[in-house]
Write a structure and sequence with these properties.
Structural class: mainly beta
Shape: elongated
């Protein structure tokens, strides 16, 4: 089993910064992808950013140049540095881990952390 625990959400004014952290524990395989998703009220959950164990990153167009994803493979922790925040970044942010032992894909989710950006 895998557990993901997020932290770092909160209330910030537009233009401000927040840093989210997500610590993974349990059975973690070396090859995996860690990511951040978000879901705003009335909207579908969307990918914000992801990073492979090798450090390859992928960002949603809406956050490119403002958000940076990184990870510590020793601590099994992923971070999301969010700068120049906008009100439209307001959402619940979820950490996700995908790993594929023996050709089967397993996806795990954290409980979510609220990010609120005031105008």
């Amino acid at each position: 089993q895998v557990q993901l625990v997020e932290s770092g959400g909160g209330l910030v004014q537009a233009g401000g910064s927040l840093r989210l952290s997500c610590a993974a524990s349990g059975t973690i395989f070396t090859i995996n992808v860690l990511g951040w998703y978000r879901q705003a009220p009335g909207k579908q959950r969307e990918l914000v950013a992801s990073i492979t164990n090798g450090g390859n990153t992928n960002y949603a167009d809406s956050v490119k140049g403002r958000f940076t994803i990184s990870r510590d493979n020793v601590k099994n922790t992923v971070y999301l540095q969010m700068n120049s925040l906008k009100p439209e970044d307001t959402a619940v942010y979820y950490c996700n881990l995908v790993q594929r032992p023996a050709d089967a894909a397993y996806s795990y989710w954290g409980q979510g952390t609220q990010v609120t950006v005031s105008s």
